[in-house]
Design goal:
InterPro entries: SGNH_hydro_sf. It is a single chain. By secondary structure, this protein is α/β, with parallel strands linked by helices. The chain has one domain: SGNH hydrolase (Rossmann fold), CATH 3.40.50.1110. It is built from 6 helices and 6 strands, in the order αββαβαβαβαβα. Strands 1-6-5-4-2-3 form a 6-stranded mixed beta sheet, sandwiched between helices. Helix 3 packs parallel to helix 4.
């Protein structure tokens, strides 16, 4: 989906910024991880005082942002997913136990009408992108459950600012003790590791760890959210051709395991309106498009259940 390059993210005044313990586990326990994902920034990424610039017109509304309730995948321009065949139903071993949000904030967009008889648990895990996406979701009509609570979807957000791939298994090992395991596990992680090792080594590490995840959570459906390129990192080839190759290889592997790849085809590095001024995070428009991809992918899975 193309977004006009003249769109600016606007002043970051929607949320106040203050030092805080990363939202890693309930209870405010700090795992000792530095916030490398937002180094040197003093603004809330993607905040906009007006929420919707009039310059956006119907473009973002069509993408399912704050202008209305969640849309079906077929009506989301630029939203693309790979995996989960439509030839048969998806088996998700869920029971009717409500998911628990790590932030403790409810779904302000939920409705009792058309509620599903079955409950599905989705864990969304990742670095600062997930931390801020959760904040953005909380003020959208669909709320933190991505507008799919009427379909029985309950979302738990596990966003750690600065999280690296090596911390994934540590987090999930702790979460294994929870009374309910996820039916769907969406990962948006690895962006803070692109410069730390070769693309080949990172792909192998991701595959190895995801095999462990599949062993720990039998029957879970993996959702790989492509790493989003960062404007301030484009001088490195690892963030251009290398990143495209990494996303393609990891996504292909996840799909081969019965999972789903979220492609984020709306990403355009030349469009400053999609990104925060720090060159790492997204603008309000970018967060909305990312959340639309999350919702669209989940909707596709639930439609086959």
């Amino acid at each position: 989906m193309g977004v006009a390059g003249s769109i600016l993210p606007g002043p970051a005044s929607l949320f106040s910024w203050s030092p805080q313990v990363p939202a890693f586990l309930p209870g405010g326990r700090d795992p000792g991880v530095l916030d490398v994902g937002a180094a040197g920034t003093s603004e809330r990424p993607g905040g906009s005082g007006s929420e919707r610039s009039s310059a956006l017109g119907g473009m973002v509304a069509a993408g399912g942002g704050a202008a209305g309730p969640s849309h079906l995948s077929s009506s989301l321009p630029g939203v693309a997913v790979r995996g989960v065949s439509a030839s048969g139903p998806v088996s998700l071993s869920g029971t009717a136990v409500s998911g628990i949000s790590s932030s403790g904030v409810g779904d302000q967009g939920s409705s009792a009408q058309g509620s599903s008889d079955r409950s599905y648990s989705l864990w969304i895990v990742g670095h600062s992108y997930i931390h801020w996406a959760a904040e953005r979701a909380a003020i959208r009509p669909g709320g933190r459950h991505l507008g799919l609570s009427h379909r029985g979807l309950h979302v738990s957000w596990w966003g750690q600012r600065g999280m690296r791939w090596s911390q994934l298994l540590t987090l999930l090992e702790r979460l294994r003790s929870r009374p309910r395991h996820p039916d769907l596990l969406l990962l948006h992680l690895g962006g803070n590791d692109v410069d730390a090792c070769s693309g080949k080594d990172l792909v192998n590490l991701i595959r190895d760890d995801l095999r462990v995840v599949l062993d720990w959570f039998p029957g879970v459906l993996l959702m790989w959210s492509d790493i989003v390129p960062r404007p301030r990192c484009l001088a490195s080839r690892r963030w251009t051709r290398g990143l495209s190759k990494l996303n393609r290889q990891v996504g292909k592997w996840v799909v081969s395991q019965g999972g789903l790849q979220l492609l984020h085809e709306w990403v355009d590095i030349s469009c400053t309106g999609l990104f925060h001024t720090d060159g790492v995070h997204l603008s309000a428009v970018g967060w909305d498009l990312l959340l639309d991809d999350f919702s669209s992918g989940c909707e596709r899975v639930l439609a086959l259940c």
